[in-house]
Amino acid sequence: MRILTLTAAVVLAAASTTAFAAEARLTDSQFIKASKCRAVVTGEQAAKLDTLIKTQKRGRSDHVVDQAFNARTDAERLARRDASAAQALAGDCDKIGA
Asked: What is the C-alpha to C-alpha distance for residues 34 and 65, in angstroms, rounded to an integer?
C-alpha cells in the first residue's frame, strides 16, 4: 500500500511540474515579439530579455528563430531611423520579460 501511495505522489508531482513548465513557455509569436523588443530596450530590461530569449530559444523550429532574428534586425533598423517609433515600440514592450 505504501508503494502505491508513494507512486501516486511521485506521478502527481511530476504532472504538476510538467504543467508548470508548459505554462512558462512562450508561444512563437510571443518569442518573436520578445526578440523584437530586445532591439529597443536597454539596461535591466535588456538583460532580462536576453536571458528569456536564450532559454526560450531551445526547442524552437529554425523558422521561428529566423523570424525572431529578422524581427530584431528590423526593429534595430527602425530605431536608427525613427526615434519616436522606437519609443512607441519600447512602450509596448514593458510587460515582456518582467
From this structure: 12
